[in-house]
Each structure stands twice: as structure tokens, then as C-alpha cells.
Specification:
By secondary structure, the chain is mainly alpha-helical. The protein has a domain at 131-205: P-loop containing nucleotide triphosphate hydrolases (Rossmann fold), CATH 3.40.50.300. The protein is 42% helix and 10% strand. It is built from eleven helices and four strands. It has a two-stranded parallel ribbon. The longest helix is centred in the middle third of the chain and has 16 residues, at 107-122. The chain is elongated and about 65 Å long. It starts with 17 loop residues before the first helix and ends with a helix. Mean pLDDT is 85; it is low at 191-205.
Length: 205
């Protein structure tokens, strides 16, 4: 059965009482603020460091478009990963474990996220990333490739080493596609991709 949503008779669906809505910050009610995307909220609260700091971290992980009041159950897995990362960036963590953080991201946002990863590494942090994105794989210091197939047909380490070593490996399934990516080829149209298809897509990372 589909989820049924019925607006609250007391708040009209805003989620806030009349008393809460009577309070305004920077000329906006809490309901108004909840509809703002992060990038707009940063402009509105740039003078308040307590508010701006977490918003800047959300922007830095590629969530500038997200509305402040957006429900968590509407987020993709990648968005939830980046939201948690934004929260962790405000703490003194030394190691970050991320599961497909590029999921749903535009290529420009992936570039931005990789820049953030570089900053974390340069500051002495460690990143463990589970990822299929070839751009991310190409930037790794060390790669562990699982396979040879998906699900029950996988689960074995078929390669471990640097990206350069992966390019030379005869065991790696991802290696030929990484080579094509680095050479600017349309690797999705390659004969090997068409022959291997879904198996390859689910084994790298």
C-alpha cells in the first residue's frame, strides 16, 4: 500500500505551531528557512558562524542544492553518505569510511568531492572508499578489487595495488576500463564491456 499523507489540521502541514511561526530570523520564519537550499541559506546566514559553519561543510561535500527541511527518507544512499561526512568534518576524526559517495552526483560535483578528499588526506586523514566510479578509482593510493562476479559469484580479492599496477594486472577486471578512462576512451562501448556487461559493473571497488 502506498504511503498516505494527510496535512495536520493544527499546523496546516508546516510542522510548526503558530507560536514558532511568529518568530522570524533574518525576516524569515522557520518554515521559510526549511525550504531554503543550502546555498541560499549560506547567503542569508553568512554573518552567523554557528549557522554558516555546518552549511559550509554541506556545500563542500556537494550538497549545496539540498533543502534544509528535506526529509532524510527522501535522500539517496550517496546523499546520506555525504551528509554524514559533512557532520564528521566538524569533529576530530582520523579515518572516514564511505560507501559509494558519488552516487547521484554530477561530474562537476564529483570533481568537487575529490578536491575535498585531497584536503582531508593532506591534513593527515585516512579515507576508505567503496566505489565503482573510475574517476575516484584513478585517484586512489591503493585499490582492493573484489570479484570476479556479483553477489554469490564474487567475494574474493582479485587484485590489490596502486592504479598503475592495476593497469598492468592480468587478473583485474577493472583494469582495462580504467585504462580506457585514463586514455579518454568511451569504455562503455568497448567490446570487453559489452561482453562482460553487468558482471563488470558490480565487481570493481
Amino acid at each position: 500500500m502506498d504511503t498516505a499523507e494527510v496535512p495536520c489540521r493544527s499546523c496546516g502541514g508546516s510542522g510548526y505551531s503558530d507560536a514558532a511561526l511568529a518568530v522570524k530570523i533574518a525576516g524569515r520564519t522557520i518554515a521559510d528557512i526549511a525550504t531554503l537550499p543550502v546555498v541560499e541559506a549560506l547567503k542569508a546566514f553568512s554573518d552567523d558562524s554557528a549557522i554558516a559553519a555546518p552549511l559550509e561543510r554541506m556545500r563542500d561535500v556537494g550538497l549545496a542544492y539540498m533543502r534544509l527541511g528535506q526529509q532524510l527518507n527522501s535522500l539517496s544512499g550517496g546523499e546520506r553518505q555525504r551528509l554524514r561526512l559533512a557532520d564528521e568534518l566538524g569533529r576530530e576524526s582520523s579515518t572516514y569510511l564511505l560507501d559509494e559517495p558519488t552516487s547521484g552526483l554530477h561530474m562537476a560535483d564529483v570533481d568537487h568531492l575529490l578536491g575535498l578528499f585531497d584536503q582531508l588526506i593532506e591534513s593527515g586523514k585516512s579515507l576508505i572508499v567503496v566505489e565503482h566510479n573510475l574517476q575516484v578509482i584513478s585517484k586512489a593510493d591503493w585499490i582492493v578489487e573484489m570479484g570476479p562476479g556479483p553477489g554469490k559469484r564474487g567475494g574474493r580479492v582479485i587484485f590489490k595495488g596502486s592504479p598503475k599496477e592495476m593497469l598492468r594486472s592480468k587478473q583485474s577486471i577493472t583494469g582495462p576500463f580504467l585504462k580506457g578512462y585514463l586514455e579518454g576512451q568511451d569504455w562503455r562501448r568497448s567490446r570487453q564491456w559489452q561482453a562482460s556487461g553487468p558482471t563488470v559493473r558490480s565487481t570493481d571497488g
